[in-house]
Amino acid sequence: MNELDLKAVGVTAINQKLYKVPRDSNERHWVIRNPMGQHAIACGLDGPLAVDIMGHVGFYCGGMNKEAEITVHGHAGVGVAENMMSGVVWVKGNASESAGATANGGLLVIEGDASSRCGISMKGVDIVVGGSVGHMSAFMAQRGNLVVCGNAGEALGDSIYEARLYVKGRADNLGADCIEKEMRQEHLEDLAKLLERAKMKHRPQDFRRYGSARKLYNFNVDHADAY
Amino acid sequence: MDMNTPRTPPRKSATFDDYTLAEIRRAATTGIYDIRGAGAKRKLPHFDDLLFLGASISRYPLEGYREKCGTDVVLGTRFAKKPLELKIPITIAGMSFGSLSAQAKEALGRGASMAGTSTTTGDGGMTPEERGQSKHLVYQYLPSRYGMNPDDLRKADAIEVVVGQGAKPGGGGMLLGQKISDRVAQMRCLPKGIDQRSACRHPDWTGPDDLEIKIHELREITMWEKPIYVKVGGTRPYYDVALAVKSGADVVVLDGMQGGTAATQEVFIEHVGIPTLACIRPAVKALQDLGMHRKVQLIVSGGIRSGADVAKALALGADAVAIGTAALVALGDNDPHLEEEYRALGTTAGAYDDWHEGRDPAGITTQDPVLAARLDPVKAGRRLSNYLKVMTLEAQTVARACGKSHLHNLEPEDLCALTVEAAAMAQVPLAGTGWIPGRGGY
Q1: Beta strands at B35-36 and B196-198: parallel, antiparallel or unpaired
Q2: In chain B, what are the domain boundaries?
Q3: ipTM over 0.90
Q4: What percent of chain B is predicted at pLDDT more than 90?
Q5: Whose CB among A135, B113, B308, B396 lies 3.0–4.6 Å from B135's, allowing a Cys bridge?
Q6: pLDDT tens for residues B183-193?
Q7: Regarding the domain delimited by B35-426, which CATH topology (the fold level of the hierarchy) does it fall under?
Q8: What is the SS3 assignment for A224?
Q9: Using CA atoms, how far apart are residues A95 and A63, in angstroms rounded to an integer?
Q10: To probe the interface with A, which of B79, B192, B220 has the most A CB atoms within 10 Å?
Q11: A47 in contact with chain B, both atoms CB, cutoff 8 A
Q12: Main-chain phi, psi angles of B337, to 5 degrees
């Protein structure tokens, strides 16, 4: 294990240190101390590292991550794991808005609550939220899975494309073109795997599934009221 | 009535002219607004309304073909470790793969590289053809983040955070289903054949304070090497430029309402935003007020067509210009030799703007493999290079006549205006007078 003190060296030095770790290095485990809510910590990582951040982080922690497994031992600011390509970003606390925005792959786990726009424009990521998500979550969500073990805020899945949404609690305000869908066996199995990966102890049968009605996929003036 | 009695001739309304009447009928028939490509087509105050004064007794000209007139420009000198060094101050604006064919994107890269300048990706990501043929490639970072990935980000030579564009400031985009090929769908992570909306706001930042943090993230990921541009549509240029500078931009791209789009509503193109000519002086003033003129570079786009336009934009304080529509025309868009096919589409060469329908006979604004194959990227790239070189020669001709040994030495004092409107917007005197509207209290 290698330790980096952000207070002593700053964000840029830490990120560049992590960028330069050779892919075949044995120094895979890194601990970042004193993150102090700074922005862009461990963004753009591109290799199989394990990074533990011991405190709260600001905007865009783990942004564009590839392969790395990043754990935030605190709360995360706006855009945690935004545009993640692969790997894991795990937030022990709560996350601010736009968590997992536009992310293409990997797993984002938020043990607490996530704020508004969680999973906005997600493009293939799997997101599991232990608590609730705020308004406009999964807005224009294209692909991937969003699992919410608590409640979903207003306009869940507005203008959603092909992403799958699973909510255990209330989701009584759906966005344009988002509807409740049948929970088939394949969905129960997928959800069980997601919950297991996120170490969340919930029964898949207690969730409901939401997705796109696909009525807004091609512009039709008869649906103008939905816009 | 006696045929010899004078009659009032039929008189059409200036308000309800033929175009307006046709549009009312079209709307009544279809129930949908008109969508099209390109930029504003209405008559606007523009660079044509400005003239260069040239040298005389009070100014000393440079000899054409003999005395050097520099054209190079360096973009991104503020923070980037590796600013872009271009031979000419005419760049290629962002246009997406998806709206354009892969052949067209490759041709843009080839032409720009031959001329020593940069080209720009668009909504939809970076194609290998484009990267491979572009010596200097600017990677657009858009609200949709279609095709956005850190590998391509690091392959880019500069990054352009797109806040807006001149054709539709405040609007997102729409790539209609008929242009969504397998490849486009795969790059954008969406099913084939559905309309692909591009968001009007970025998903993970709002306002200049957040933008500053976003730019910081992009700099971290690219090791502080690459210039970061911020592109805005022309609306409130003074404030937008000031806020872009505050947010940490190396370069500001300012796109007036003549700037083109692949597709949006006609009402948006013609009624939102301000002309390019009206954008430049407020933008330059913002940079000057902040002490950042020439430190943060300004790229102006929207209706740049000739070396005269380039010279005028630079004289008003821009560091470089970008061309989009003109570049497509250079590749072969709207060429009269395709007139028969344009007529079959219900239009005519020079007016074809249904770029969103994907039936472009020139093979440029299409994803149809048969149509796209019509465009030879090598020949089209050569045409673009020729055009860029001509524009540069024209700008140099004008600059030498004004006694300037570099295009960047052109200044507002070299200009006068033909109309009161242009004089007010460009803040140069009405020709033959010393009057600059708005100056001196009147």
Answers
A1: unpaired
A2: 35-426
A3: yes
A4: 85
A5: B113
A6: 888 888 888 88
A7: TIM Barrel (3.20.20)
A8: helix
A9: 13
A10: B220
A11: no
A12: -70, -10
